[in-house]
Design goal:
Blueprint: H1 3-30, H2 34-54, E1 58-59, H3 66-77, E2 80-81, E3 84-85, E4 87-96, H4 99-127, H5 137-148, H6 151-157, E5 162-171, E6 174-184, H7 185-194, H8 201-211
Antiparallel strand pairs: 1-5, 2-3, 4-6, 5-6
Helix pairs in contact: 1-4, 2-3, 4-5, 4-6
């Protein structure tokens, strides 16, 4: 294995670890009382808006003020229906001499982030042994492997995403774009279940029941 391949794999592993911690924290936050979640949303949005402004970020032309965009992002991020997210929020950035190209890079990467989160949410859901009475240990492993090996298909199958954060700044003669996209949780369920269309119908039904709890 070349040094470049090793570095790429290490970076990917670190990124997945960060995403796993994010999903874990988000699931914990979603269990808070509604009024506490609202307080946290406003606090987090205000804090991050202040930090981003300090770093030179500003709303893209024609978009809402930074704090309002972030409030929407965090509100969606912490909203669950049952034990599954009502929205998936993918965030990423891009950098180019062209503002349009930088934004295009950011949007593509944000959709990849959505697909990765979908995989991790399913893993978290199926591994919660206190409520998982549908799937056996073997079936949990099967679901995890199927979703893990279907990342490319998931990315390609994503329907329309909604841009909920769109900010930019100029550094070193280049434009940086940072975006967040929102993907509907019900569409995410359909995308995940489509993986099992040609597989075991019983596992698909059990997973569907679990996703709709």
């Amino acid at each position: 294995m070349s040094c470049a391949q090793s570095d790429t794999e290490n970076t990917a592993k670190k990124q997945e670890t960060v995403q796993q911690e994010f999903v874990k924290e988000r699931r914990a936050q979603a269990k808070m009382a509604k009024n506490l979640i609202e307080q946290k949303v406003l606090k987090d949005a205000k804090k991050q808006a202040k930090q981003l402004k300090k770093e030179g970020w500003q709303p893209a032309p024609g978009t809402l003020p930074l704090e309002k965009q972030l409030t929407d992002v965090y509100t969606r991020m912490y909203t669950y229906e049952g034990r599954f997210p009502k929205y998936f929020i993918g965030r990423s950035s891009g950098r180019s001499t062209s503002a349009g190209m930088a934004r295009k890079q950011a949007l593509t990467r944000a959709r990849v982030d959505v697909a990765s989160q979908m995989k991790l949410e399913v893993a978290a859901l199926t591994e919660e042994t206190d409520m998982n009475t549908e799937l056996s240990a073997g079936e949990v492993e099967t679901v995890a492997k199927m979703v893990d090996t279907s990342q490319t298909m998931i990315q390609q199958s994503l329907g329309r995403t909604e841009v909920v954060l769109d900010i930019m700044r100029t550094t070193g003669g280049k434009t940086e774009s940072q975006v967040a996209v929102s993907y509907d949780g019900n569409l995410a369920k359909e995308t995940l279940l489509s993986i099992f269309e040609k597989e075991d119908a019983q596992i698909k039904q059990k997973l569907q029941d679990l996703l709709n709890k």
